[in-house]
What does this fold into?
Amino acid sequence: VQLVESGGGLVQAGGSLRLSCAASGFSFSSYAMHWYRQAPGKERELVATIARAGDITIYPASVHGRFTTSRDNVKNTAYLQMNNLRTEDTAVYYCDVPPIVRGQGTPVTVSS
It folds into this structure.
């Protein structure tokens, strides 16, 4: 049972990144999935939720209109497209399928 994130890195403010979350060992299509982030010294923040079929997505105001999550249940992979990145988006980003498993995280650094 595993979630593996990839796609993080260093980007300038205003740029874009696409994170991936590859699932294995469980029935990925049976669960909603969440993306979280945690910056140093800050609380963990939920940044996206996607329903099992991918037909419903929810975002907080802090990322709404800039972040888009999607999923491919054939490939057992979810994605987080992040556009118009800001320095305050710098954090480690995790995918999470409660109560099954959480990924190890991928760091995103946005420079000014």
In short: The CA atoms of residues 33 and 97 lie 5 Å apart. The chain has a mean pLDDT of 97. The radius of gyration is 13 Å. DSSP finds no helices and eleven strands in the chain.
